[in-house]
TrEMBL record:
Keyword vocabulary terms for this entry: Hydrolase
Family matches, as InterPro entries: AB_hydrolase_fold, Polyketide_trans_af380
Name the record gives this protein: Alpha/beta hydrolase
PANTHER family: SUPERFAMILY HYDROLASE, PUTATIVE (AFU_ORTHOLOGUE AFUA_2G16580)-RELATED
UniProt cross-references to Gene3D superfamilies, sorted A to Z: 1.10.10.800, alpha/beta hydrolase
GO molecular function: hydrolase activity
Taxonomic superkingdom: Bacteria
Classification lineage: Bacteria, Pseudomonadati, Bacteroidota, Flavobacteriia, Flavobacteriales
Organism whose genome encodes this protein: Tenacibaculum platacis
């Protein structure tokens, strides 16, 4: 396959299936040279047309190779045989990331490999890095790093979510059909007013990016839908990175908004780090601002490039 500067469509193997990725190469790319490469892990939907399509070109413009990809069962990547699209367990996301690192390791023009995660992607990258020292440094942006305090704050609500997820899991096992009825998330058809009225935390911020009128919502990003499979809570309520934070050996950069409702996910993680690490906290940016607002993206990608180049 002939690669060129800019975005290149690629595939690599994970769990015996082919995951779809976009490999961003810097201007003047020369396959005879060595480049620093980044595995990018994106927020909750894990589709390459959203955060990787924003951060990939930015990191390539700063001289890096960047790999963004559709995780197992998301976007253009298939589910496992006999399973459903959007079934996504943290353990599989970690293994997908390990395989992405392995894929980059096969490319003769790749030198050191780093990890860059945004939102849940931060937790994925940090979890993968605990035992994958092929990843030499990691950076997280608006990372859901220490998510227990954020996700398990109201045990009554959490237990209701788990009950619904358990029911959905049983239904799917018995019917052998996907159940896309997770009730508490943004739906493709919702207007801003409808979603804000649900009282969902960060509703306005979330809609700005994921809503049908948002920056990267349904219809604007290929193969993206706000639908989530009904047993989602069984998957997303398991947070790994924070419980292994003190085991992370690689130098780590943490970027977050001080006033974001998810700030505790970064600060609690930082408190547990025992490695060499740097922190950049900003008053003026929300959690989702770092996904797409030009000023926030420039600040974060500049900082990540500086950190990875040290």
């Amino acid at each position: 396959m002939k690669l060129q500067a800019g975005k290149n469509s690629v595939h690599f193997t994970s769990f015996g299936v082919q995951l779809a990725g976009d490999l961003y190469l810097p201007e003047g790319f020369d396959p005879s040279k060595k480049y620093k490469a980044i595995v990018g892990a994106s927020p909750f939907p894990q589709v390459k047309g959203q955060i990787p399509a924003i951060y990939g070109p930015e990191m390539a413009a700063r001289g890096f190779i960047y790999l963004g990809f559709d995780y197992l069962g998301m976007g253009d990547s298939p589910a496992l045989p006999g399973e459903f699209k959007k079934t996504r367990y943290m353990f599989r996301l970690i293994e997908n990331t390990w395989d992405a690192v392995s894929y980059l390791g096969t490319l003769p023009f790749v030198g050191e490999i780093y990890g860059l995660g945004v939102c849940q992607g931060g937790s994925i990258i940090a979890s993968a890095a605990v035992t994958d020292h092929r990843i030499k440094k990691i950076a997280t942006v608006s990372g859901m790093m220490a998510a227990d305090a954020f996700q398990w704050g109201n045990k009554d609500i959490v237990n209701m979510m788990i009950a619904g997820a358990n029911t959905s899991k049983q239904k799917m096992y018995e019917t052998e059909e996907a159940d896309y009825t997770w009730p508490i998330v943004l739906q493709d058809h919702m207007t801003r007013e409808e979603f804000v009225a649900t009282g969902t935390p960060m509703a306005e911020d979330t809609y700005n990016f994921y809503g049908k009128d948002g920056v990267a919502g349904p219809g604007k990003v290929e193969h993206f839908t706000c639908e989530h499979i009904g047993d989602q809570a069984m998957q997303s309520l398991i947070s790994i990175a924070e419980h292994y934070a003190d085991k992370i050996a690689q130098p780590t950069l943490v970027i977050y908004g001080k006033n974001a409702s998810t700030a505790i996910c970064s600060t609690a993680f930082i408190d547990k780090l025992a490695n060499e690490h740097e922190v950049l906290a900003f008053d003026k940016f929300s959690h989702v601002d770092f996904y797409w607002k030009p000023e926030a993206v420039k600040i974060s990608t500049d900082a990540v490039a500086d950190f990875f180049n040290k």
